[in-house]
Each structure stands twice: as C-alpha cells, then as structure tokens.
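anyone seen this seq b4? input:
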Amino acid sequence: MGDEVFAWLRKVAIFACLFLLTLLEPSMKVQGQGIPKQKLVAVLELSGESERITFKEMQYLSDIVRKTAVDALDPNRFMVMTRESMDVIIPPEKRVCLNNVCYAEVARQLNAHYLIGGNVKDFAGKLALTMEAYDGRGVLLGSELGEADDVKQLLSLVRELAPKLLRRVLGVLPPGPGPGQVTPPPAPGRVELVSDIAPELGYLRVEGQPKGASVVISGPKGFGKVETTLPYGPVQVPAGDYKVEVSAPAYDSATKKVFVPADKTITLDINLEMSEGILEIDGTPKGARVDVTCEKGFSKTFGLPGRLSVPRGTCTVKVTRTGYEAFEKTVTVLGGKTAQVQVSLREVSSAQTVLTSSTLSGERFVDNGDGTVSDRKYRLVWSKKNFGNMIWQKAVDYCLENRAGLPGSGWHLPTIDELRTLIIGCPATEPDGRCPAKEGCRSE
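predicted toks r here
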C-alpha cells in the first residue's frame, strides 16, 4: 500500500513540474546570458509488429534512443522528456502512432516541439527497423531505415541509427556556455550548413478478394521479390515501378503494374474472378443430344437435361435429335454464377424426317457424308440440314445463293413433282401422279 501511494505522489509531482514548466516557458531565458528557451523532445516507445521481439526488449530499445537524445542534444536548447513524465499526461498505449495526424495530436498533448518514434516488423525474414522524427505539427522531418537478423543485431542498429536521425533533424551540438559566460560572435568566413539527402521511400498497400490469395510483388533494384497474401501492407518500399501478381485456387490470376512515388501511399485493389460458373440446360425431349463448347477449349456432349461446371465466358449450346428441328444458343456464364438454358425442340414433318435421318440406307438413297443425300432412282440430291422456317421469297433466295454452303451448284426449292418422289408406295411417286387416301400412302 505504501509503494502505491509513493508512486501516485511521484506522478503528481512530475505533473506539477511539467505544468509549471508550461506556464514559465515564454519567459525561460536566463537574464543577461542570452540563452534561448529549451524545447521539449519526446521519445515515444518503439512499436513492434514482430513476434520475434518481446515487450521488455522493445522498451529497452526505446530507452537507448531516449538516452542517445539526452547525451547528444544541447541541454541549453533541448529538454528530453522521461517516460514517467509522459505517462502522467498520456497513457503509453495512446502514444503508439502510425501516421502524422497521430504524432501531431500527441505533440499537442505533451506540449512537445519534437517527437521521435519508430517501429520494428518482420520483413523478408529480417527485423526491419524504421525510425522517424516529427515536429509539433506532425510534419515528417527525417527517417532512418535498417535491417537486422536478430535482436542482438537490432540493438547495434538502434545505437547506430539514433544519433544519425538526431544529427540530421535536430542538430547535435556541444553543450553551450556555462553561467556567467558570453558566447562570442562567430568568426566571418565560409558557411556550409547542409542536410543529408532523404531516402526516396513510399508506401504500398494491396487489397482485394479473396482474402488469403497469394501475392507476389516484384520491385526496383534493392527491393527484390516478396511473396505474401491478401491484404498486404501498407509497407514502406523504395519509390519506383512494381508488378503485383495475385492468384488463388479456382480463380483466374491477375497482374497489375503500379508506380509508387516518394513520400506517398499507393493502394492497389485487385479482385479475382472465379474461373468457372455453372451451365444448366433443361427441356424436351429428354435424352436429346447436347453439344456444349466454351472458352479455353472446353467441350462436352451429353443427353438432355444436364448441369455442369464450365469456364467463365461465352458458351454455345446445340441440341439435336432426329425428327426435330435443331436448337442453338450462345450464353454468357459468369464466374461463380449459374446460367440457365431452356430447350423445347419442335418436331419436323415426315418428309423432313426422310431428309434429316442419319439412318438412310438401301439401294435408292445414299448418304454422301457431306450434309447431302442422293436419290439414285430419280437422280436428285437433297440437303440433310434443317434451316428452320422462312417466308417463301427468303427461302427461294437462300437456296439459289446456297447460303448454307452445300457442295455443288444449282440448289433450289423442290418442285411439287420432286417432293412427290419422296412418297413411297403409291402412284404419286410418278410425275403428275395422284395418291388417293384409300391407297394408304406412306413416307419414309
């Protein structure tokens, strides 16, 4: 109980000191010394997205950055806030920032002029370290990047990069003159105060469907190739051109190219389409021959009805049966969806049955195998194909122009006498013949 009271009193004392410091800040100059007021520097806790580093190890890395700031910065110009003083104002869990808006808000609440932060994450089998410095408005002043194989190397990397970041952004100067001393004016001469060239880095994020799809990213020299899954990022990457390939089982793969500029975040949205859909064919007569051809070389023959998976895209459905008019339709099948085709074949006349039958045999009729049938008795050639219903003049033109592409020439609509030759078993088979109903004429 005594320890808890002591800790509470300690926090109250720190808060009171900070509050007093805020009130006195506009007048924090030592009389006659010309020493400027101190600016507050807040070193936030490094955030960790890696499972290879513990919370205590992350805290120790943050302590190293904070100690580096205390040792390197001019105490007459800067004051580094302790972890405990920041805890009094803002809880630790609310000081983890991922964007400049957050840094600006934390700086406002802490009344800090500068903030140092960063994070550690797993990247391509290594521990990737990012350290950044912001001013009180949330403006990024500079950053340092590095990679380590393990926590021991990461410790050395923090000790190396922290002074660089402070030197580039805030300027590491030796302690100022002590009390009672006057700083002499600088000697005239050449001036060279320059900054390092900031690395050209941006952020890349890949989103889309389905979640968990495989993602392969190829980038500029120094980035190499990264294999991951959807969604990915945002991850800091070198500025340049990238190729993103996304694939998943049962989906068509997709590839996109994108340019990531420096200091910008690019979000790429890739939604894969399912490779197959379902084609459902039903109707009459049952058992009719169905021929299906689709994209990607797919084909299937079966009896009516049928339901099957087909590649997405356009499919042609043909339904045929002897004694019926043929049916043909083109349908679009969407990935993951069902397309339905309803069929109702119409019966053809008995004369047409003779011409379209695939069972013609005997000495009189011969199937030529090219879509035509020869009548040896009357030396006529008939088409086996059914071209549907047409008005008279259209049918005349269709035959004369041979739009069906039949072999030979001289195609025309049959005359009444030519049609009579197809009737078997009565005088009507002869020119100008008649077939009384009592004779029971039949067709074949």
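The CA atoms of residues 215 and 246 lie 5 Å apart. The domain at 276-344 is CATH 2.60.40.10 (Immunoglobulin-like). kinda curious what u guys think
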